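Recap from last week: sequence in, structure out.
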Amino acid sequence: MPELPEVETVARGLALKMEGRTLVRVAQHRPNLRTPFPPGFVQRLTGRRVAGIGRRAKYVLVRLEPGSGSGNDTLLIHLGMSGSMVVSRGPAGAPGAHDHVVMETDDGAVVTFNDPRRFGLMDLIADGEVDSHPLLAKLGPEPLGNAFDADTLSARLAGKMTPIKAALLDQRVVAGLGNIYVCEALFRSGISPERSAASVAGKDAQRLVPAIRDVLTEAIAAGGSSLRDYVQSDGELGYFQHSFAVYGREGQACPGCDCDVARTGGVQRLVQAGRSSFFCARRQR
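Predicted structure tokens:
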């Protein structure tokens, strides 16, 4: 599942290709993904100019200027587990087996939503209803936004006896965090993934919030530094590889301390609610 940095990378890449452009042709090749496409999906997109592209949590939001008989709709995109947005130069050819939506802009760009497992989704949200949309209404604060600080995090964790790892993955506590970057942020802040969420307050929260911000910012920078000229061999935007301190490094030396791998086992792996947590038991308490 793509996490916040990957979705932000996709949104920024799409913005470079689509903002200010008009969708001259839109093709929908199946009736549904994880959920059905909204009624009149193709007609409501065709001929619309893209006013801007942003992100909320793990969703890409494409703001559309008013069209004939329509207001400022927003196209909501979730990539699911295997979805991708591929940008190429037109004209569009025959769609592949998993190319479910194809959008062509007035300057010849072809944007294809490809999703082999069909866990992604697309929806159109009417003007003024974005914040109240069922997928967005209960989301917590953005971890890179001004509303996210140590006091806010402490208040949202208060009374929660679940492990801090699980609490941070709860999108109602903070929006957009996923397994990889929670592992990395807990490592940087020296907090064990097994700690109860309620115990992470005060100075612990003051360490954790900047750790979350830093790891996300660095991941976005690593994926987005060459976006303007970046095109993979298949034209896909996003899903860049990053260097992690602990994630996926079970049994390796901890990069944050001098622990003896032969004696301590180095970076350890713990399964929590079906997800792998990677941490250093000596560094993280």
